[in-house]
Every structure is written in C-alpha cells, then in structure tokens.
Write a structure and sequence with these properties.
The chain is built from 13 helices and nine strands. It is an alpha/beta fold. It has two domains: 158 residues, Rossmann fold (3-Layer(aba) Sandwich), CATH 3.40.50; 136 residues, N-(1-d-carboxylethyl)-l-norvaline Dehydrogenase, domain 2. A six-stranded parallel β-sheet has the order 3-2-1-4-5-6, with helices on both faces. A three-stranded mixed β-sheet has the order 7-8-9. The two termini are 35 Å apart.
C-alpha cells in the first residue's frame, strides 16, 4: 500500500484549523504551524507534529498547505529569501487555500525552487463546511499537480479543477461576488417587507419557497435573526475580497453596477461598526437606519457549531 504523503499545514484559524483536523482524522502525517498557540495545541492534540516556523513546516512536507486571511499574509509567510517557499524540497507541491490575488500567486510561482509546483485552491462553504468536510475547493494548476493533490483535498469536500494556475482564485472570487451581492440585498428585502406590514417569520418562509430562495438566504439569514451577524467572517475580509474582485473586473470592460453597489454597502457598514465587525452588519446598518429589529425567535444554532 502506497504511504500517504506528508502534509505541512500553516494557518489554523477559523477555516484552516478544521481542515487540518480533517486531514489528521484521515490518517495523514501532518506537521502544523500557527502563531496562535491555542490553535496549534488543538492540532497537536489531534496528532499533528509541530514546527517552530513556517519554513520548518515547509521543509518536512511533500504537500504544503497554507490557509491565511489575506494576500499580504501569504507574501509574509511565503515570499522573500527567508520565506517558506524557498524551503520546499524538489518534488513537493504548495497548495494555497487562501482567497488570494492572482498577481501574487503568479509572482510566487515564478520564484518557486526548481521542481516545486504551485496550486491555488481557495475554498467555500464556511466554518461548518470546513468542520464537516463539505467545502467546495476550486483548484487551479496543471493536471499532474491536480492529480497528486486531489486525493488529499477530497477529504475536505468537493474538488473542482477549474483549469490552469490562478483559475481557482477567479472562480472563488466570482462565487464571492454573487454572495456579497446577495448578502447586501438580504437586509433590504427584509426591511421592505417588514416596513409594509409583513411579519419577518412569514416573509422568510415565503422567500424560501419562492424565486427569492438561495444558499445565502438559508445559510446567512439565521445569523441576522440571532443578532450575532456571523463573526466567523469580518467586514474587513469582505472588503478585501471585493477589492480582489474589482481587480478581476478590470478585464471585463463593462460597468458592474451590482458589484459596485455591494462594495459600497459593505464599506458603509464597516465605517459604521468597524472593519472587524461581523459580515452581516451589512444588514444591521439597514435595521438601525430603518428603526427595525430583525430578531426572530428560533433555535438558530451558529453554523460553526453544526
């Protein structure tokens, strides 16, 4: 029986932590690193070996995974003379699970040591998807690299090979583009119904059984009803992704009014509540301005606890 490849995993946050645990549960030998000692301890308790740095983690990996919040974090960890990229051994593959900038991915791929391949594989499905192995992973990279990493990534959810390097990020950002537009619209729809005499529970039931239904409605609305607005993803991260989407939109050469409006809605919420506030404060801003309460009684278990 062919032994499982050694895994290096850097970034054990809201998404990376559960993904690392799933790989450990599948029996992979994992070496992990994170600046957060508590997050690292959870991985160690599940069987991970620890590294003292991202570079040391990379040195021990046949398949090296990174899951970090922003492109500048990837640049800091991977780039430069002392970055983890230079420590990868010949024949290894770096898989970046971050929603990243293609410009940066292409730059780092060009700097990779000879014999080291690079794959972009941003994920979608939120924290509950990461915990339960029900993410969708958008992979960009050559066929040979994809074939090697696919069995590993299958432990995390559905894997879609999107094409050459960079296409994974493009597809992920398109899905986020549509998500942000929908998320920005939820509060507007609820407010319109409530301000005109419809009870929120009735309205939500009707939306779920109509053309207004969507994953965003079913997954995100309960976070509004509960009043925590989903702290697993911040307004700052929404705006980061919207900036990356704007970079891609330069190639479209047509007006994108829906995306522009969504960015404005999230920017307005961030200016009101702070960039670190939970993502669905984009709906709270409408509640507050309209003098409405979108609290709804129910057993709204946070999705990251499911």
């Amino acid at each position: 029986m062919t032994p499982l490849p050694s895994i290096g995993f850097v970034g054990l946050g809201n998404m990376g932590g559960p993904m690392c645990l799933r790989l450990l549960g599948a029996g992979y030998p994992v070496t992990a690193f994170d600046l957060n000692q508590e997050a690292l301890n959870k991985a160690v308790a599940a069987g991970a070996r620890t590294a003292s740095s991202a570079r040391e983690c990379a040195q021990q990996a046949e398949i090296f995974l990174t899951s970090l919040p922003r492109p500048d974090h990837i640049q800091e960890v991977m780039g430069g003379e002392n970055g983890a990229l230079r420590s990868l051994k010949k024949g290894s593959i770096w898989v970046d699970l971050t929603t990243n900038s293609n410009e940066l991915i292409f730059q780092l791929a060009a700097e990779a040591p000879e014999g080291v391949n690079v794959v972009d594989s941003p994920v979608t499905g939120a924290v509950d998807g990461a915990r339960n192995g029900k993410l969708t992973l958008f992979v960009g990279g050559d066929q040979a690299s994809f074939d090697r990493v696919d069995p590993v990534l299958q432990n995390l959810g559905m894997v879609i090979h999107c094409g050459k390097l960079g296409t994974g990020n493009v597809v992920k950002l398109v899905t986020n583009q549509l998500w942000f537009i929908s998320a920005a619209a939820i509060g507007e729809g609820f407010a319109t119904g409530m301000a005109n005499g419809v009870e929120l529970g009735t309205l939500w039931h009707a939306i779920q059984n109509s053309v207004g239904d969507s994953f965003v409605i079913r997954h995100d609305a309960p976070s509004i009803f509960a009043g925590h607005y989903d702290p697993s993803f911040s307004l700052d991260l929404c705006l980061k992704d919207l900036r990356l989407i704007k970079e891609l939109n330069r190639n479209v050469r047509a007006a994108m009014p829906m995306t522009t409006a969504a960015e404005g809605a999230f920017a307005l919420a961030a200016s009101r509540y702070g960039a670190s506030a939970a993502e669905l404060h984009v709906a709270r801003r409408i509640e507050d301005d309209a003098g409405l309460s979108m609290r709804l009684k129910g057993d709204w278990v946070p999705h990251w606890e499911k």
